[in-house]
Amino acid sequence: MAQQTMKAWQYNSTKGGIEKHLKINNAAPLPTITDNELLIQVHAVGINPFDHKVPESGMPMRLLGSNLTPCVDFCGKVVKVGTKVDDLEVDKWVFGAKMAALNHGALAQYVAVPRQMVAGLPEGVKVEDAAGVGIVGLTAVQTTKPNVKKGDKVFINGGSGGTGVFGIQVAKALGCHVTTTCSTPNVELCKSLGADEVIDYKKDDIVQTLASKGPTFSLVVDNVGKPANLYTRASSFLLPQGKFVQVGSNPNLGGIAQISRNMLLPGFLGGGMHSYQVFFAKKAVHDLEQLRDWMKEGKVKGVTDSVWEWEDAPKAFEKLKTGRARGKIIIKVKQEEN
User: Fold this and answer.
1) To 5 degrees, how large is the angle CA 10–CA 11–CA 17?
2) What is the DSSP string of 246-269?
3) What DSSP letter does each residue of 286-297 carry, written as one string?
4) pTM exceeding 0.70
5) Do 240 and 218 meet the contact criterion of CB atoms below 8 Å apart?
6) pLDDT (tens digit, 9 = 90+) per residue, 26-54?
7) Coil/strand/helix, residue 97
């Protein structure tokens, strides 16, 4: 490639919200790749709460540098391969995630990504749908697959958000019975994705409804962090050897305090009685390829809330921060015409 620069959405502050500081840099440096990386021409990006919550959490911006490019999930085309990458070629369409992208993320025309965080785009799957799979798809697989067997009952707290829509589908692909939560307008969406039972938190108390079933679940995946007593009351609905996996929470003092109590407070002092895991996604190409195969078979599909033009990226973040997205919010990336 002859070009040395690209367009990228970047920010240098998050005061008052990251969306207020995002600006297009028309001359951002083109990423370079290592031997085990790919250079991807990005065509669509999926945005996640991580993309604004962590930068807005109060961490010193100077630790990250300047002209920061956000976003993790992407779909695009390979334009360059590292010398040690021998199973993907130039012009191959792929999807994946730029793990922990706080400064050199995917909301740009090009992104450098490790080989283990990329999988081929299945034929017939839309670019915009695949762009939202990456980190939330990995989260769904890695929180569920190691912890269940066919026929187990799984409770997913927050089934209509970006992570939950994949959690439902992955659990069903693994042969599990799925109970989930959402608000009234999203009940039919969750059922359409395969949920066997949906608790409408606008109408019913989540903990009381679960407790009325007795200890029946093998796994709880909490994508929300609310209600605050979900873990401490889990013994009323989680099997003795069941696991509680925390995915969603607020990276503020209140959220950190709640997680700390759940991890450290013993049961006899009011804490929980079950295994408690705070989840962090891991780089794993085999998990992305499992998602690819399930998408090819029609067992898992991308669920897109809305698609935004490149110039409207700040508005897409505003929509994300309302907490009312049904599935993933996608931003199309404007590429130069040849």
Assistant:
1) 130
2) E----SSHHHHHHHHHHHHS-GGG
3) HHHHHHHHHHHH
4) yes
5) no
6) 999 999 999 999 999 999 999 998 899 88
7) strand
